[in-house]
Amino acid sequence: KQEVTQIPAALSVPEGENLVLNCSFTDSAIYNLQWFRQDPGKGLTSLLLIQSSQREQTSGRLNASLDKSSGRSTLYIAASQPGDSATYLCAVHSFSNTGNQFYFGTGTSLTVIP
Amino acid sequence: SAVISQKPSRDICQRGTSLTIQCQVDSQVTMMFWYRQQPGQSLTLIATANQGSEATYESGFVIDKFPISRPNLTFSTLTVSNMSPEDSSIYLCSATRGAEAFFGQGTRLTVV
Questions:
Q1: Among all residues of chain B, which has the CA nearest to that of A51?
Q2: Nearest CA in chain A to B92
Q3: Quick check: B43 and A89 CB within 8 A?
Q4: Cα–Cα distance for residue pair A36/A2, rounded to 1 Å
Q5: Which of B16, B54, B96, B103 has its CA 20 to 30 A from that of B26?
Q6: What confidence tier does B98 reach under pLDDT thresholds 50, 70, 90?
Q7: pLDDT digits (tens, 9 = 90+) for A38-76
Q8: Helix-strand-coil percent breakdown of chain B, rounded to 5?
Q9: Which residues from A are below 8 Å from B90, CB to CB?
């Protein structure tokens, strides 16, 4: 069964700093990997989707990389802002006994201090 | 992207009662899922909602407790039955189009 781990669990940085969030997974046979943002008590907002054949994706100040062979992905946030404060979740789209499934990490809670 | 409308957004319910959560997607999607997110934890898949047939439940979840319907490609409901305080969670509807997943805004359920 796919297991997804995110490090660190929580991160607090001053505004303007660049930061990296880490995601690791145990089974490299994946369809894709997706990064989400979740504000407190809310649903998930998709940030970036990386297909298994891709190495990275960029959107604005966000850059996500994927190294499938080592089971790792990183989310890089440039010039962080207080509005970036949220929980960031990594989800791996992978095989399961019941079909295709998304496996979620436990998230990194980010606080950007003004 | 797909827009997913989920309602209610929140509810406070008495133990022993049932709540039905609705999920409407703005266009046809490949698959629909229901997740539970308990306080401070990540998402746990409850079941895959199959169109016109019984949902596929994950280990630890049963149809009697969480009946699911999906009468067409864009609509699904999840019922939380005979609720107890342990059912207090955020319930999330998700849909996939191709390889990408989209989520509703969630239903925050509190059982008292």
A1: B99
A2: A43
A3: yes
A4: 18
A5: B54
A6: confident
A7: 998 888 999 999 999 999 999 999 999 999 999 999 999
A8: 5, 55, 45
A9: 41
